Structure formats: structure tokens, C-alpha cells
User: What shape does this take?
Amino acid sequence: MRVVFMGSPEFAVPALQHIVLSGYRVAAVYTQPDKPAGRGRYTAPPPVKEAALTLGLSVIQPTSLRTLEAAQQMTDFRPDVVVVAAFGQLLPQRVLDIPRYGCLNIHPSLLPRFRGASPVAAAILAGEEFTGVTIMLLDKGMDTGPILTVAQIPISAQDNAGILTGKLSLIGARLVVETLAYWTRGEIAPRPQDDALATYCKPISKEDGKMDWSLPAVELWRRVRAFNPWPGCYTRWQGKQLKLLEVYPLAGIGVAGTIVSLSQGAGRPEAAFGVLTGDGILGVLQVQLEGKRPMSSAEFLRGQRGFIGSILA
Assistant: This one.
């Protein structure tokens, strides 16, 4: 069976590897164009491109799939099925119609919950106890196609978006290989999504990471987890950005943004300080001051006189 794989970020790499190891013939790998990255703004390839080249696969990096030429190129690969995992572009109908078994998408949520661009972060922000992976048939909508298979996992209090995405990428890789076998044998009946239960999540921006200390500690705790590793949650101290890398919520009352000591045994012992919020205290375990390396809150506190009692912006 001939497969065309489409994906770009690290999330998609395990799926590509599993498909190859399972004996499917990957005719081509589609991924996004190389983009500037890092402080030096050097050109970096998407992780899927690097993985595909390592596997000896042909790589296509279209700027658009909406041209007749792009559709013809896809047709020339003669795919029986197309597998999509965070590719980064919507597929036009003329591309969706090419493979006889359709285009299967690996979506990291329990559809129809959290359709859209940031489902992993959205599940953490919403305080969900469970999330998962849905394998669905793509149609012209945004994650609206019929469902083929689903796998569910719990969300741990220690999960941030990076950790949870890693878990879901491995689950999705195994699930899509299983689904391909059953689907192409005609042993799966597609199940339409219930649009009445649908929720949507928007793309995340850098501004989403700015801490609003008037919010409850529980919500800020979820934000720090949801926006790790990107864009990260941050506040300002003495004119510099202070990133909050690991936190947890506590009970407490006071002026929002005020830094308090936790040295009296409140909460987890490794947290040296907390920040008062609109409802509760956000205990801080690890921070990173602009231009410095990540460090524990205790280590940071030793180098910052007058920090306790001040108010963060």
C-alpha cells in the first residue's frame, strides 16, 4: 500500500517512523518549508523533514496545496491513503479526493472537543481530567470529519503541554498504524461527529503567556503548564522578564502580585516563595530570569534582595 505522509513538528515524527517500520511504502513526505529559527535566525528544517531524510524518503515542501500543479504532483505519487499529523495547512477538496482510502488525520484531542490549532494546551487550560488522540477522515472543515478510532489517557498534574504532546504523539503513532490496517480492510465504520458538542481552540500567541495576577491561582497554574514550552508564562521583575517554569496552587489571601515567603513549610518544601493571586497563592518551584539559566526558586531568592514583599508587574 502506498502512503503519502504529511506533517511538520516533532509530534508527527513517531507516526512517520511507525508507518515505515510497519512495512507501508511511503511514496513521499510533505512538510512545511524551512523557516528561520534561533537568535541567529538560521534556516531550520521541520523535524519531520529531518526524520524523513534519515529514513531515505522523498520530501516535498509546498508553500500551498491549492494549485492545480500541487494536486497533480500528489496524484503522480498514486497514494492509496494520505496520513496527516499537524501538517500546518488545510487540504483542498481536490487533494482530499485523490487517495481511495481518503486522508486520515491524527488529532491530539477527544473530538469533537478542542477542534483547532492548540488542542493539547486547551485541554490543560480547561482543567480536563482526560484527553487523547482521534484518528479521523479529513473533510473540508476544521477537524470536522468522521471519527475512525479514539484512544484516551489521563492528564497528570505534572503534565505540561510539552510532556503531554510527547505522550500523545506516541499514542497517535501506534493508533494510526492499527487504524490503517482495519480501515483498509473495511472493518471500521466512520462515526460522524456531534457538532453540538464541539469546542474550538485558537492559535497560541506570545502575549498569552503574560501573567495576570488577578486571576485565580488554579487558573494560573494551568496556564504555566499549558504554555510550557511555548510561549512560556512570564512576569516582570526590576525591568527584566521573569519566566515561571514550574508552579503549583495554594490557598491564601492578599494583594494580587505580592511575593510571599513559603519558608515556613507551606506547600511543597522545594518552593521558596509564592505569589498572591486573585484567589490563592501560586507556589513557585522553578524560574528563569531574562539572560540567566533556569534555577530553583530557592537559588533565585538567594540572589535577589528585597524580593519578598515586592509586587510583580
About this structure: The chain has a mean pLDDT of 95. The first strand starts at residue 2 and ends at 7.
